């Protein structure tokens, strides 16, 4: 039974990394109670069977995927489901009267044709793409207030966009010069097994993948183009690194003037003033993934090169927290008009 006064939350995909992280973080949310954890393949099984770390903390059986039943048990649903699945399921949940925060890429691109080109699935109907609010909290957060449907940004786009947008908006970098070199831990690929994330294939190894083909390219370009007021294209290369959590996005761009690292620090601190989850490092200090692990922080550092006229911007996040479940809860807080930090007060786990 829901505790009186709390918002009732259901999680579809609760047996995946994004879903199980939502369960962890929502344990300490003062205004939310999880009333249903949902699985399409293991309904009826106790969740702690697949996730023994939840023993004594969340002991409930997994429910099946039935939108009408979910609407009877919950007020809001987090869909931590693969792309293609969310596209079909989310409209049914919205029609059942639920609020939705979707963690997949299915509703992030406003143009359905772009979605089909990059994701290789049929796009959701335009009406849902229009309804979806792209929830990059520190940039478009005011759009989330009172919204009923949030499309949570991708992990790589979160790190990348938070690192680039203040400089693009200020007109300090050349939009046609941006190169993004991004690296992710293997949890970014989800809990499913594949040769790509097999221990012997990734341990002591470093792999570049999906060069110029990654589905996050149009998401990054869509947001940068909106901010720049012109079409922006980027070169984007992703790498898999042998760690569990973390994304580092290293971005290179030509500067339009002779800016110093301190200039960038001042610009970004002004842009993110009052936003608790972006930490702009002092001039010359470059953040590492471990410094945000397990937390909702995005840390940003700069190296300006007067010799080449280029700025290097380094942005780090925990892909499952700020890149997925944490930002989803931050979006929930913004939707509901609550304090942005509720349920997110985690100090990074170090070392
Ligand atoms: N991992 C990350 O760092 C990030 C992930 N994302 C996105 O979030 C979403 C979830 O990712 P992640 O948790 O890593 O993925 P996982 O593969 O770990 O989990 C996805 C879950 O979806 C469930 N699922 C599969 N098919 C269906 C279906 N037809 N109906 C309902 N549920 C289904 C599965 O559970 P079951 O079989 O029990 O139903 C599975 O556990 C994806 O869209 C991903 O791209 C976004 C940002 C970062
Ligand atoms: C390490 C790794 O494999 N990461 C995944 C991120 C997937 C993801 O988050 O996909 P959507 O945001 O599009 O839903 C990838 O690069 O495809």
UniProtKB/TrEMBL annotation:
GO molecular function annotation: N-acetyl-gamma-glutamyl-phosphate reductase activity; NAD binding; NADP+ binding
Biological process terms in GO annotation = L-arginine biosynthetic process
Q: What does this protein do?
A: Catalyzes the NADPH-dependent reduction of N-acetyl-5-glutamyl phosphate to yield N-acetyl-L-glutamate 5-semialdehyde.
Q: Which HAMAP family match?
A: ArgC_type1
Instruction: Give the Enzyme Commission number.
Output: 1.2.1.38
Q: Which family does it belong to?
A: Belongs to the NAGSA dehydrogenase family. Type 1 subfamily.
- The kind of enzyme this is, by top-level EC class, is oxidoreductase
Q: S-adenosyl-L-methionine: present as a keyword of the record?
A: no
Where located?
Answer: Cytoplasm
Against SMART domains, the record matches this protein to: Semialdhyde_dh
Q: Which residues form the active site?
A: 155
What name goes with this protein? N-acetyl-gamma-glutamyl-phosphate reductase
Keyword entries, A-Z: Amino-acid biosynthesis, Arginine biosynthesis, Cytoplasm, NADP, Oxidoreductase
Query: Which residue intervals define the domain Semialdehyde dehydrogenase NAD-binding in the entry?
Result: 8-147
Pfam families in alphabetical order: Semialdhyde_dh (PF01118), Semialdhyde_dhC_1 (PF22698)
> Where is it mostly found?
cytoplasm
* Pathway the protein acts in: Amino-acid biosynthesis; L-arginine biosynthesis; N(2)-acetyl-L-ornithine from L-glutamate: step 3/4
Which InterPro entries is this protein grouped with? Answer: AGPR, AGPR_AS, AGPR_dimerisation_dom, AGPR_type-1, NAD(P)-bd_dom_sf, Semialdehyde_DH_NAD-bd
| GO CC field | cytoplasm
| UniProt cross-references to SUPFAM superfamilies, sorted A to Z | Glyceraldehyde-3-phosphate dehydrogenase-like, C-terminal domain, NAD(P)-binding Rossmann-fold domains
Fetch the NCBIfam families from UniProt: argC
């Amino acid at each position: 039974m829901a505790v009186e006064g709390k918002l009732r939350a259901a999680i579809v995909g609760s047996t995946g990394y994004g879903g199980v992280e939502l369960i962890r973080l929502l344990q300490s949310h003062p205004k939310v109670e999880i009333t249903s954890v949902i699985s399409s393949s293991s309904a009826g099984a106790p969740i702690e069977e697949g996730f023994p770390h939840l023993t004594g903390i969340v002991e409930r059986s997994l429910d099946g995927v039935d939108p009408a039943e979910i609407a009877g048990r919950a007020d809001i649903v987090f869909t931590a489901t693969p792309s293609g699945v969310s596209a079909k399921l989310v409209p049914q949940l919205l029609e059942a009267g639920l609020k939705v925060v979707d963690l997949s890429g299915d509703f992030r691109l406003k143009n359905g044709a772009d979605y089909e080109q990059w994701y290789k699935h049929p796009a959701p109907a335009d009406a849902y793409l229009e309804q979806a609010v792209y929830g990059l909290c520190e940039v478009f957060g005011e759009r989330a207030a009172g919204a009923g449907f949030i499309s949570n940004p991708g992990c790589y786009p979160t790190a990348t966009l938070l690192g680039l947008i203040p400089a693009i908006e200020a007109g300090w970098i050349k939009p046609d010069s941006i190169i993004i070199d991004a690296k992710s831990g293997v949890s970014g690929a989800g809990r499913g097994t594949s040769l790509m994330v097999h221990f012997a294939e990734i341990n002591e190894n470093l792999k570049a993948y999906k060069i110029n083909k990654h589905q996050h390219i149009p998401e990054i370009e869509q947001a940068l183009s909106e901010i720049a007021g012109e079409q922006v294209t980027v070169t984007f290369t992703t790498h898999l690194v042998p760690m569990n959590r973390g994304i580092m996005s290293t971005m290179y761009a030509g500067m339009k003037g002779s800016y110093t690292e301190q200039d960038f620090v001042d610009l970004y601190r002004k842009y993110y003033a009052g936003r608790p989850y972006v930490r702009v490092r002092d001039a010359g200090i470059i953040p590492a993934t471990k410094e945000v692990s397990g937390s909702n922080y995005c840390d940003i550092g700069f190296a300006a090169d007067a010799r080449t006229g280029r700025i290097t911007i380094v942005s780090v996040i925990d892909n499952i927290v700020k890149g997925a479940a944490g930002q989803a809860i931050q979006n929930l807080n913004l939707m509901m008009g609550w304090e942005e930090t509720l349920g997110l007060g985690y100090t990074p786990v170090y070392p």
